[in-house]
Write a structure and sequence with these properties.
Elements: E1 16-22, E2 28-34, H1 36-45, E3 49-52, E4 57-60, E5 69-76, E6 83-89, H2 117-133, H3 141-148, H4 150-170, H5 173-193, H6 198-208, H7 213-216
Parallel strand pairs: 1-6
Antiparallel strand pairs: 1-2, 3-4, 5-6
Helix pairs in contact: 2-5, 4-5
Length: 220
């Protein structure tokens, strides 16, 4: 990643526009400017740094609030004059305590933009990952599953699977939706337990599109 630094085209003020995007959901979180020092700091620490034009100083996002932006990757555009920080946020990205700075439309109306289907799953998976790694929070059901271990998690997957089958057999739509949602959640907990990123599941599903089962069955 260091190699891109020499390719970046900074403006006359020595700054490059920097877009911040949620790695898991694809949501645009914020926009800022970075100078070369901020870019280097971001790369070396894996924490998003920017240049504050109002304070005229280097700015580590979340240094005060704790809502840091953990960098997964950095992209540069085709003209090499704009960056995207792909991040896992520790909390709200906006100083107004909202997830994203972009929550008001041009009519000055605040609204929530629905997540795409895969983004909903990614958002839930991100929360599961955070619960797995955070300290304390003994009231969290998700945290308790990880604490109790794989045997407990798999027993819940089996339990929810049986309840989903029963709901399907009874044919009640609301019950089917409810039970399969529970099953999907516990399956994601099991996936997270094995340190598998949900994107690996997406990739596996994508490989299967338009193919027969024999084309993607694992060799025994």
């Amino acid at each position: 990643m260091i190699s891109i630094i020499n390719d970046i085209k900074y403006n006359d003020s020595g700054l490059v526009p920097t877009i911040v995007q949620d790695y898991n959901t694809g949501d645009i979180l914020m926009f800022a400017f970075s100078n070369e020092e901020a870019v280097r700091k971001s790369i070396n620490t894996n924490i998003a740094h920017f240049w504050s034009r109002s304070r005229n100083e280097l700015w580590e996002k979340g240094a005060t609030s704790g809502n840091r932006l953990n960098i997964v990757n950095i992209y540069i555009d085709c003209d090499k004059d704009c960056l995207i920080y792909m991040v896992n946020p520790d909390g709200p990205a906006c100083h107004t305590n909202t997830k994203s700075c972009f929550y008001t439309d041009l009519n000055n109306k605040e609204r929530e933009v629905p997540l795409l289907e895969t983004q909903v799953i990614s958002e839930v998976f991100s929360i599961i990952e955070n619960r797995k790694n955070e300290e304390g929070n003994d009231k969290s059901y998700t945290k308790s599953l990880f604490k109790d271990g794989l045997k407990k998690i798999l027993s819940k997957v089996k339990e929810e699977s049986n309840e989903s089958i029963e709901a399907s057999e009874n044919g009640e739509k609301d019950k089917i939706i409810y039970e399969y949602t529970d099953l999907l959640y516990h399956m994601m907990v099991a996936i997270s337990y094995h340190d598998i990123d949900i994107k690996e599941i997406y990739k596996e599903l994508e490989k299967r599109i338009g193919k027969t089962k024999k084309d993607y069955t694992l060799d025994e």
